[in-house]
Structures are given as structure tokens and as C-alpha cells.
Design brief:
Layout (H helix, E strand, L loop, with lengths): L4 H11 L8 E2 L2 H7 L2 E6 L9 H11 L2 H4 L3 E4 L3 H13 L3 E6 L4 H9 L3 E5 L3 H15 L2 E2 L6 H17 L5 E5 L4 H13 L4 E7 L4 H8 L21 H10 L2 E5 L1 H14 L6 H11 L8 E6 L17
Parallel strand pairs: 2-10, 3-4, 3-6, 4-5, 7-8, 7-10, 8-9
Antiparallel strand pairs: 1-2
Helix pairs in contact: 1-3, 1-8, 3-5, 3-8, 5-6, 8-9, 9-11, 12-13
């Protein structure tokens, strides 16, 4: 089942009492730097620290009771796992999260704090999938993917739905893209509410499979992603890509240095904590003239960063 705008609206109603309607902030300095009017949708202030809470909650709340009682499971480097653990705890059902041992400690701790059973695995997608399959066979839990799932995509789109309702006449909206759930959900919402507006994605140059896929018209492999934006190292999902091909104007890439600089600006000028993945869209906006003189919505995807592991050179930006 491919989600549509009606699914995003239904998701908004379904999760309304379980997630925060996060604020939209502005910055005169960043407007001057970019030459645009920027409107930041602060999902770094979302429950569990990221937009992932929206999709996970919508998916968990969509399960019929008999299925839900057997629990839910997923693989995740952190944010989706924490979001699913929180959503499951609030529905009173078990959650099992397969996590690579290389996942940031702060994200591992968050998943554990929400009460999920954590299963450690190796760092590759194959490692994750093998461990997850074992969990599903042992528990009978329902697999809730991080992004390649209709209810997850619809849930992620509710952030853009709120943004478009809060800020009129946007010309462009830009989000990070890893697996594509946030970008595809955003595109569904924006194209329906503001059909004249363009939706953009942004990703690290060292993990540019979404950019290459959109250019070539088919999903391109992700080989050894190399970026500080750990949340964007995911392989692009097939369902998100199908939506993106029809509704996304372009995907821009940025260097890790540009990500660090944008993260530093958000921390020091706007006084908000974001993780590297969340800074990628601002880095993209600052790196091109295509957003100049436009009203631009930027979705800050998350704020789960370990202060003890800040990117090298951030304090010198």
C-alpha cells in the first residue's frame, strides 16, 4: 500500500495526543546568510528527540489489538529504535530493537530507557536483517521498518503538515534524506497543501545514494557510506523512492565540513541542539543560490547528539 495525503491527515489525527506539535522558529542572522526567509520545524524538540516518533507511533497505533499484543520489532542505529520503543511502551506492548554495536552510545541508552529489548549485531545491513529475522521467528512480533512502510511514511509527513499549516505561502521545503521516509512523507503533505511549492532533499556527499537514484531513475546501491551524519547512512527505501520520483524536485549533497558549519550555526545562533543529520538541509540551503529570495521550510530532523562526541572542529567553525 502506497501512502497518500489522506493517509498523512489520518496519521495526524491518530497520533495527535501522543506527539508534540513542535515549534517553528526563525533567525534573522540565518535569513541574512542564506538570502532567504527560513522557517525551521524543530523536530529536535520532538518526543524521543526526533521526527521518528511520528512514524513509529502511527505504525504502532495502526495495529489491531491481536497483532499488537505480540509486540513489534525493528533494526535501527538509534532514533527509530527509540521512537518505536516509546510508542510500544505507551501502548503496553513489547518492543525488540536490533542495533549495530557501532551505534552512538547516547542512542543505545535512549532505546534502553524506553524499555525495549536490545539485540546487538554487526554494523552491516546484512547483520541487522539476520538478527531481526531471528527475533521475528522467536517472538512473533510485527516488523516496523524505519522508513519503507506506508504508516511510517504517513506519520513522518505530519511534521510537514504542521509546518504548512503554521506558515503560509512557502516556496520550498527541504528535509534530510537517508532511507527516505521523512522526505517522501513531506512531499506528500507539501504537494497537497501547497501545490506550487517544491520539495527538496539533502544528504551527505559521502552517502549520496538518494541523489544518484533520483538522477538515474532507479535505486542505486549504498557502498560504504562515509559521513558524520550517522542517521543518513541508510539505504534508500523502495516505497519512499516511488513517491520521491514523482514529487521531489531535487536532492542536494553537502560535505561533512559544511554539515559541521551548519550545525555550529544552529547551536550558537539559534541556541538549539541538533544532531549532524538535522543540519544537512541548512548546509544545502547555504551552499546554493537556488533558495535565494524564497520562503523556505527546513525540517530539523533530530537532536540526539552526544556532547562528548561532537564532530572534530565544530568549536572552530
Amino acid at each position: 500500500m502506497e501512502p497518500d495525503h489522506a493517509g498523512v491527515v489520518q496519521a495526524s489525527e491518530r497520533i495527535r495526543t501522543h506527539v508534540h506539535q513542535t515549534p517553528v522558529l526563525t533567525s534573522t542572522l540565518l535569513d541574512e546568510r542564506s538570502g532567504a526567509q527560513l522557517f525551521f520545524k524543530c523536530e529536535n524538540l520532538q518526543r524521543a528527540g526526533a521526527f521518528k516518533t511520528r512514524g513509529a507511533t502511527n505504525a504502532v497505533r495502526s495495529l489491531v489489538q491481536d497483532t499488537a499484543q505480540r509486540g513489534v520489532a525493528t533494526h535501527s542505529s538509534g532514533n527509530h529504535g527509540a521512537a518505536l520503543a516509546l510508542a510500544a511502551r505507551e501502548r503496553g506492548i513489547p518492543a525488540h530493537v536490533v542495533m549495530p554495536h557501532t551505534a552512538p552510545a547516547i542512542k543505545h541508552a535512549a532505546v534502553a530507557a524506553y524499555g525495549a529489548e536490545i539485540v546487538s549485531c554487526g554494523p552491516t545491513l546484512a547483520d541487522r536483517e539476520a538478527a531481526l529475522q531471528n527475533v521475528l521467528e522467536q517472538t512473533g512480533a510485527t516488523f516496523i521498518p524505519p522508513y519503507d512502510h506506508a504508516h511510517v511514511i504517513a506519520g513522518q509527513g505530519t511534521a510537514a503538515l504542521e509546518l504548512c499549516r503554521a506558515v503560509s505561502d512557502l516556496d520550498q521545503v527541504i528535509t534530510p534524506v537517508g532511507g527516505g521516509g521523512l522526505l517522501s512523507g513531506t512531499a506528500l503533505a507539501v504537494s497537497a497543501i501547497m501545490p506550487g511549492a517544491e520539495t527538496y532533499g539533502a544528504e551527505p556527499a559521502g552517502a549520496d545514494d538518494a541523489c544518484r537514484s533520483l538522477q538515474l531513475g532507479s535505486i542505486q546501491p549504498m557502498d560504504a557510506p562515509d559521513t558524520i551524519a550517522d542517521g543518513l547512512r541508510s539505504t534508500l527505501g523502495r516505497l519512499p523512492f516511488a513517491i520521491m520520483r514523482r514529487r521531489v524536485a531535487d536532492i542536494l549533497t553537502v560535505t561533512d565540513r559544511e554539515i559541521i558549519d551548519a550545525m555550529h550555526l544552529l547551536w550558537t545562533r539559534m541556541k538549539i541542539v541538533v544532531e549532524p543529520s538535522a543540519a544537512v538541509p541548512l548546509a544545502a540551503v547555504l551552499g546554493t543560490d537556488r533558495f535565494r529570495d524564497r520562503r523556505v521550510g527546513i525540517i530539523l530532523s533530530g537532536g540526539n547528539v552526544d556532547p562528548q562526541a561532537l564532530p572534530s572542529g565544530m568549536s572552530d567553525a
